[in-house]
TrEMBL record, chain A:
Family: Belongs to the COG6 family.
Biological processes, Gene Ontology terms: intra-Golgi vesicle-mediated transport; protein transport
Originating species: Mizuhopecten yessoensis
Lineage: Eukaryota, Metazoa, Spiralia, Lophotrochozoa, Mollusca
Subunit structure: Component of the conserved oligomeric Golgi complex which is composed of eight different subunits and is required for normal Golgi morphology and localization.
Domain Conserved Oligomeric Golgi complex subunit 6 C-terminal: 190-638
Protein name as annotated: Conserved oligomeric Golgi complex subunit 6
SMART domains: COG6
Pfam families: COG6_C, COG6_N
Gene Ontology CC annotations of this record: Golgi membrane; Golgi transport complex
TrEMBL record, chain B:
EC number: 3.6.5.2
Family: Belongs to the small GTPase superfamily. Rab family.
Cellular compartments per GO CC: cytosol; early endosome membrane; phagocytic vesicle; recycling endosome; trans-Golgi network
Residues covered by region (Disordered): 188-214
Names of the cofactor(s): Mg(2+)
Any one Pfam family match given in the protein's UniProt record, by short name: Ras
Gene3D superfamilies in the cross-refs: P-loop containing nucleotide triphosphate hydrolases
GO molecular function: G protein activity; GTP binding
Record's subcellular location: Cytoplasmic vesicle; Early endosome membrane; Golgi apparatus, trans-Golgi network membrane; Recycling endosome
InterPro entries: P-loop_NTPase (IPR027417), Rab14 (IPR030702), Rab_GTPases_membrane_traffic (IPR050209), Small_GTP-bd (IPR005225), Small_GTPase (IPR001806)
Lineage of the species this protein comes from: Eukaryota, Metazoa, Spiralia, Lophotrochozoa, Mollusca
Enzyme class per UniProt: hydrolase
Keyword Hydrolase tagged: yes
Species for this entry: Mizuhopecten yessoensis (Japanese scallop)
Protein name: Ras-related protein Rab-14
Length: 639, 214
């Protein structure tokens, strides 16, 4: 509508210049198709402008204005309600704001009011937390430093004195707490530490006391052949180890019980034997000393080994050293010492035979060594064995000495063949037997050497003495041959054994002396027989200042010649002039030595005579006819 | 657990006999240590070893006395037969002489032990098959004739060693069960230990003992 008016206006203005053309132009220029506003306006105009008349045209403006007014009124009316609504919203918001402010202020007030409370609460909360931590600590502390009621009960134990495994656990704990208290004492908690320590000490003391009573009782009952060392008892020993005195007492109790058992076992083995008498009781063999003593010693050896094992099983959990075990073992085996000693002493004292005594001595020595590997040297049992061994040693040498004295008391005369006497043979046989049983024994080499030395001096010295005494009435040649024979027999006996070298050397020296005698006897016998003894004696004593030898009486050529022819016939058969005593020599070697050495002696005598006769200063005529053989020839003939 | 190897009910005493060099000590060593001892020195007198075995669920401790084979120790070793529950009589399958001496060893064993002693014949060195001098059949017949148990073993390889010791123990145990071996008699070679310690634990707790033995 406005557009229409404006186009009307422009139309009229163009009319003003060239009003019509301009108006026309304008109308023509107007593109009504494209002018939506114009189209809208016209469309709206078409609604109410139905009658194109003058009046209506005149009224158009007012009509339009009226319509505009109506529309505006409608508009106003519509917006009125909007405004009212907005107003109410505004009021609502406003009241809300007020409300909120009120709330804020109230909250603020409340906050101010609760601030203290919150503070208090926070404080209380933190306090509670602290307390909780403290409670935990306290619990942990109690856990660590106090016995639980059931543990305390376990420690107090039941009225009948029995023990449970709980006991050991509780005891272990009490011990641990006691130990931990030392840490407490290092901190500020000294009072608590001391108090707890005291409580624990009390607990422990009473527990150890009970444990000790129990263990003591248990040990007291271990008197069977093979005691039943329960694992509980082992545990008890381990626990008791912390109380050395109680530990020691309990062990002593164990030792005493075992000691009784071992004594009873020995007596049973000695007198009762096995079931139905097999194996037979040891005492049934008391007539056979080596078996009797050997059986007893073997029994003791086995018993000692078993006891040691039992002891070790008892103390298997303990740190206990071997010394303590040995100590108790010594105590256990002490009981059998007396019954054993009495029996062996009886055997030794009533035994006369040196060989048996020596066997017993070696047996004792062997078992001393064997048992030594099980129990320590200073145990009573080993001391007893050593004592008896000492006694057997003395008894053995007594027996040997006795034998020797008998030899010297009743000396036999040498037989006519100058061979050994019966007593010599018997004594040598005894020596052989003794040395043979030494061979069969197992004793350290040093001991053996020492023993041999003593035995030999106990036997050989009196023997040599006896032989000298027995030979004292013989002439020197017989004596030499007899002594050589006796000593030769001793030598052959000894040569079979070890450690006899020195002794053999000494005997050889004596034989050598006898050989020397025999050699000189043999040589002078030959010289006498051929009549050269006087000649030789004169030749030896002759001094050049006495003048020529041929001038001396009985030293003339013919005398010498006849002697030399006898000597010649001796040389043809040297054996014809052997001393009868030489033939009786038992040793071929000695016989040979005598023969050879006497021949040497004769040869040297001949050489001296030969040299003297051939010496022109002695004025022998025809000396080659007096001594037809040179010394070399003589040596060749006689050797 | 803590009761450990000592928790046994019986102790059986064994003795090992036989000629020198048949391997008695090696058998013992093989049994107790499960090792072969190559340069075994001559035994002097007697030595002893122990091991715990199990027979029919019972723990048994074997106390084994190993004797010297040398003749000079014969007098000493004879004293150790007394009270043996088992005697292991050993010969060397490669040396007939050691087999020939068995009858004298057997006489000793019969005379010096109690009638219930179990005698077990062992032919040792079965690993040396090439040098065999005594057949299995011959020895088996000897064993049967004399009522002995018999096995061929090798201390070197350990073959059958375990069985020889165990079978002996089984036989002894069987004798106990039969009642033919009287435990109460002294020197039976067997010592019995009651399984539950007297006075130590109340009856109702006894079964727990194995479990909680700490």
């Amino acid at each position: 509508m406005a557009d229409k008016e404006s186009s009307d206006t422009s139309f009229s203005s163009s009319q003003a210049s060239n009003p019509l053309s301009r108006k026309l132009n304008k109308i023509l220029e107007t593109r009504l198709d494209n002018d939506k506003e114009m189209l809208e306006a016209l469309k709206a105009l078409s609604v109410f402008f139905s009658e194109n008349s003058l009046r209506t045209r005149r009224n158009l403006r007012s009509d339009i204005e009226r319509r505009s007014l109506v529309i505006n009124e409608d508009f106003l009316q519509v917006f009125q309600s909007v405004k009212e609504q907005l107003d109410s919203v505004y009021n609502d918001v406003k009241s809300m704001n007020e409300c909120c402010q009120d709330m804020t202020s109230r909250l603020k007030a409340a906050k101010e009011q609760t601030h203290d409370l919150i503070n208090q609460t926070t404080k209380l909360q933190s306090e509670s937390q602290t307390l909780q931590v403290k409670a935990q600590v306290a619990d942990a502390f109690l856990e660590k430093f106090q016995l639980k009621p059931e543990e305390a009960t376990a420690l107090r134990g039941s009225r009948d004195g029995t023990l449970h495994m709980d006991f050991f656990r509780a005891l272990g704990k009490a011990k641990e707490i006691h130990k931990h208290c030392k840490i407490l004492l290092r901190t500020n908690q000294q009072t608590a530490g001391l108090e707890i320590m005291e409580t624990m000490a009390l607990h422990q003391e009473s527990a150890y006391e009970r444990l000790y009573r129990w263990a003591q009782n248990e040990c007291r009952m271990l008197t069977g052949d093979s005691p039943d060392v329960s694992s509980m008892l082992c545990q008890a020993m381990e626990a008791l180890e912390d109380r050395p005195v109680l530990f020691r007492y309990t062990l002593d109790e164990f030792g005493t019980a075992r000691r009784t058992a071992v004594v009873r076992g020995l007596i049973d083995a000695l007198t009762r034997g096995g079931p139905g008498g097999t194996p037979r009781p040891i005492e049934l063999h008391s007539h056979d000393p080596t078996r009797y003593v050997g059986d007893m010693l073997a029994w003791l050896h086995q018993a000692a080994a078993s006891e040691k094992e039992q002891l070790q099983s008892l103390l298997k959990k303990c740190r206990s050293n071997g010394e303590q075990i040995q100590d108790i073992l010594g105590h256990i085996t002490e009981g059998v010492c007396r019954p054993f000693k009495v029996r062996v002493e009886q055997v030794l004292v009533s035994e006369q035979d040196a060989v048996t005594l020596y066997k017993l001595h070696n047996l004792l020595k062997f078992y001393h060594n064997t048992i030594c590997q099980i129990i320590c040297k200073d145990a009573a049992l080993l001391n007893t064995v050593a004592e008896i061994q000492d006694l057997s040693h003395r008894m053995f040498f007594n027996s040997l000495n006795c034998n020797a004295n008998k030899l010297l008391d009743k000396v036999e005369l040498p037989p006519s063949d100058l061979g050994p006497t019966n007593s010599l043979n018997q004594t040598l046989q005894l020596l052989k037997d003794v040395l043979a049983c030494h061979d069969a024994s197992v004793v350290a080499i040093d001991d053996k050497k020492q023993d041999y030395k003593q035995i030999l001096s106990c036997v050989i010295d009196p023997l040599v003495q006896m032989c000298s005494v027995s030979a004292s009435r013989l002439n020197s040649t017989d004596m030499a041959a007899y002594m050589a024979n006796c000593i030769y027999l001793m030598q052959t006996t000894l040569a079979m054994y070890e450690f006899t070298d020195t002794r053999l050397e000494m005997l050889q020296a004596q034989v050598d002396a006898q050989i020397d005698t025999l050699v000189s006897e043999q040589a002078s016998f030959v010289l006498n027989k051929v009549g050269l003894a006087f000649v030789y004696g004169t030749v030896q004593q002759h001094q050049p200042k006495q003048g020529p030898l041929s001038a001396l009486p009985d030293m003339g050529g013919p005398v010498l010649k006849s002697a030399m022819s006898k000597f010649d016939s001796y040389m043809a058969s040297p054996d014809s002039l052997v001393l009868p005593q030489s033939r009786l020599l038992l040793s071929g070697r000695v016989r040979e030595t005598v023969k050879k050495n006497s021949a040497d002696l004769i040869c040297s005598a001949y050489k001296q005579i030969y040299d003297t006769i051939c010496d022109p200063a002695n004025e022998y005529k025809e000396s080659p006819s007096i001594v037809p053989r040179t010394p070399d020839q003589v040596v060749r003939l006689l050797s | 657990m803590a009761a450990g190897p000592y928790n046994y009910s019986y102790i059986f005493k064994y003795i090992i006999i036989g000629d020198m060099g048949v391997g008695k000590s090696c058998l013992l060593h093989q049994f107790t240590e499960k090792k072969f001892m190559a340069d075994c020195p001559h035994t002097i007198g007697v030595e002893f070893g122990t091991r715990i075995i199990e027979v029919s669920g019972q723990k048994i401790k074997l106390q084994i006395w190993d004797t010297a084979g040398q003749e000079r120790f014969r007098a000493v070793t004879r004293s150790y037969y007394r009270g043996a529950a088992g005697a292991l009589m050993v010969y060397d399958i490669t040396r007939r002489s050691t087999y020939n001496h068995l009858s004298s060893w057997l006489t000793d064993a019969r005379n010096l032990t109690n009638p219930n002693t179990v005698i077990f014949l062992i032919g040792n060195k079965s690993d040396l098959e090439a040098q065999r001098d005594v057949t299995y059949e011959e020895a088996k017949q000897f064993a049967d004739e004399n009522g002995l148990m018999f096995l061929e073993c090798s201390a070197k390889t350990g073959d059958n060693v375990e069985d020889a010791f165990l079978d002996t123990a089984k036989k002894i145990y069987q004798n106990i069960q039969d009642g033919s071996l009287d435990l109460n008699a002294a020197e039976s070679g067997v010592q019995h230990k009651p399984a539950t310690p007297r006075n130590a634990i109340n009856n109702d707790q006894a079964p727990n003992k194995e479990g909680c033995a700490c």
